[in-house]
Amino acid sequence: MTESNTEKNSEPPKQTLYERIEAFVSELSTRNLFWNRVCSLIWLPYAFHSGLTMEADETKHRAILPFRKFNKNWYNAMAGAALLGNSEIAGGNYIFKVCGGNYTVVCKHLDYRFLRPCLGPAEYQMTPLEDIHELVATGKEFNIAIQMNIVQALKRFETPRMIAGKPAKPKRVGRCTITFHVTPKAHHKAKKLRRKTTR
User: Fold this and answer.
1) Average of per-residue pLDDT across 87-102
2) pTM for the whole thing?
């Protein structure tokens, strides 16, 4: 194989118009809360109706699940299905925001432990167990595990309970470890092209 042929084969396949639009919408969904809600209404209706919102700063990544009728069970606590289902959505949204619209994110394994009833809004506090930015920089597909503490957040207008003059720590209602498989979309396209050429 000549050097020119090698260079051609190493070049990533060009994106179609549909793929460029898909990447643009994916990036848009991670830009701010408004566009995240719009995209959720179309592609993640469960997350839209549950009211899950993402928050992040330089050190913390978290999601808030409001204490609303859609998420409650018959005895007026947060439903276990709502806590469990939204943990996968919260973790996936976080990974997707870091990686960008040119990656697919699939949940491989989820381990959730219920600790106590949640009688208010739930906050998912997410910590990646590996350096996700280094993994993305490789340009290859990878697995990434996230650890989550799920705590009962304060309700609106509720003041924190004080213990010895300091605000009490929020109650931890659950603990979750979740693993995602992340693949560049270019890899999917390259595999399809290889299948076509081998037929």
Assistant:
1) 86
2) 0.74
